[in-house]
Design brief:
3 domains; Jelly Rolls; alpha+beta; five-stranded antiparallel sheet; disordered N terminus; Cathepsin B, Chain A; 27% strand; 10 helices; 16% helix; 505 residues
């Protein structure tokens, strides 16, 4: 018999919900805070101690001298004056990447999380406040303890840290702040390093991981050389919604191209705009390099003469600042970047119809060697043992405006083998199949699949999460999530997002 499956409902206050996150490693922030305050002592985290075990083993080429590391509190590092958690709010320009850790994937997600201005702050304030609780400071009830929240495999967790930071010569060796006495970026990175197992466990990663961990929402991926013609319209609507957008460059060519684009690097998409140039509309994309420098130098860059061809009103978009952020045309964007990821709480922005509201369901299950880990369809004798999910898609309401080429269903499959350290997690090749059904009932046996051709085959990937975005006609379908090889045990989360009324078993 397959293991019981669990559904997650965020409308409740169950443990693991946004309003009631789980205490990571059973560390209760309020209890630890009150304990430290009552003893009049500064908190030291025994589960992520200020020593080399929390740094982890970094690659030799990083050339970090562990003997020079000193763990110091912000009060010892702040200059000038006393430390602050935030200074003039939270901004994508607050942080700078450290030289000892290749975690641009994490920093680009921070940039996406904090890519706001006075007009757009309200769009993301709930997401920001969920990840970075606002009621924290170095003055009011200060006891050297802070906490942050992340979404991990279907559950929100609350992560406690102390404020002891690894430094060399009084400089943080990982993420730092551009304002010397502001510490939210450094502390956020420390909390995420604790979740990953160590700082070294953050070295290299996929941007989708951090995006999902910041939102617990919908992740969608677009391969830009195959992008739909209406992608800029999707990005425009996304920019006006509570979404996070990032993009990645090709892993080829020189480390930095002549036009200023860094190879094999992750950037944040911070905005889109349409301007009129010589009477013609131009679709622009604004991009941020998490390094805080090294910008695009060609058309529509900070000093491009093309800005002289736009109206005074459109000139407001031009920023001639050496801060790593720049504009480029949509055409150049799709040429220089290979992939773009969007993560959001709800994908309603995908449709032009304001009345369209996507619905979601998330289910938890396990592949267990010998019972429910049947492998891919190449394994004819065992494939049918995999968990099976039935989906019935209803007719789409006539009120919805269907954009040509648009999809109506997104399926996401995420795996977790529950290993503590991120770098030690064994990721299997995972994927899923979708079959059209004709009234069959019960657990379907091997005979059902013998002559069946799936209507959707997700490409197997050695990733934490794989997703597919597609159109399915109304009807009944069967979704079979699986590992590529039989006999591989892991937990999984299967999520379905649809703009139809969808019944999921």
């Amino acid at each position: 018999m397959p293991p019981p499956l669990e559904r997650h409902d965020y409308t409740t206050d169950n443990v693991g919900s946004p309003t009631n996150p789980m205490a990571f490693q059973d560390q209760d922030y309020q209890k630890l805070l009150h304990k430290s305050l009552s003893r009049n002592e500064l908190y030291i985290d025994e589960l992520f101690p200020p020593n080399n075990s929390s740094i982890g083993t970094l690659d030799k080429e990083i050339n970090l001298d562990y003997n020079k590391i000193k763990w110091k509190r912000p009060s010892e590092l702040a200059s000038p004056g006393k430390p602050f958690f935030t200074v003039d709010g939270i901004s994508r320009f607050d942080y700078k990447q450290g030289s000892k850790l290749g975690n641009c994937w994490f920093l680009a997600a921070i940039g996406a999380l904090t890519a706001t201005d006075e007009k757009t702050w309200f769009l993301k304030k709930d997401i920001i406040n969920q990840v970075i609780p606002a009621d924290q400071s170095f003055s009011n009830n200060y006891a050297g303890i802070f906490h942050f929240r992340f979404w991990r495999f279907g559950k929100w967790i609350d992560v406690v840290i102390d404020v002891l930071l690894p430094t060399i010569d009084d400089n943080p060796i990982f993420v730092g702040s551009k304002t010397a006495n502001e510490f939210w970026p450094t502390l956020l990175e420390k909390a995420y390093a604790k979740v990953c197992g160590s700082y070294a466990d953050m070295n290299g990663g996929f941007i989708s991981e951090a995006l999902m961990d910041f939102t617990g929402g919908v992740h969608m991926e677009f391969v830009l050389n195959e992008a739909p013609a209406h992608l800029w319209n999707i990005m425009d609507r996304a920019a006006k919604s509570p979404t996070l957008m990032v993009c990645g460059t090709y892993n080829r060519g020189p480390p930095v191209s002549l036009s200023g684009i860094v190879a094999s690097h992750v950037y944040t998409v911070t905005g889109v705009s349409k301007v009129m140039s010589k009477g013609n509309p131009v679709h622009l994309v604004r991009v941020l390099n998490p390094w805080g420098g090294t910008e695009w130098t060609e058309a529509w860059s900070d000093k491009s003469p093309l800005w002289d061809t736009v109206s005074k009103e459109d000139l407001k978009w031009r920023e001639n600042l050496d801060n790593g952020e720049f504009w480029m045309s949509m055409e150049d964007f799709t040429k220089n970047f290979v992939i773009m990821d969007i993560c959001c709480l709800c994908p309603d922005f995908l449709d032009r119809s304001s009345g369209c509201h996507w619905k979601s369901q998330r289910n938890f299950g396990k592949w267990i060697a010998g019972t429910t880990a049947g492998g891919s369809m190449d394994n004819k004798g065992t494939f049918w043992r995999n968990p099976q999910f039935r989906v019935r898609i209803e007719e789409l309401s006539e009120d919805y405006t269907h954009e040509e080429g648009a999809e109506n269903l997104l399926v996401s499959l995420m795996q977790d083998n529950e290993e503590r350290n991120r770098s030690r997690k064994k990721l299997y090749n995972i994927g899923f199949y979708i079959f059209k059904m004709s009234g069959e009932s019960g657990k379907l046996s091997a005979e059902f699949f013998n002559d069946k051709t799936p209507v959707v085959v997700n490409t197997f990937g050695n990733l934490r999460e794989v997703m597919e975005f597609f159109w399915l006609d109304p009807g009944e379908y069967l979704i079979v999530p699986c590992t590529e090889n039989p006999g591989e045990t892991a937990s999984f989360v299967l999520s379905i997002f649809s703009k139809h009324e969808t019944h999921f078993e």
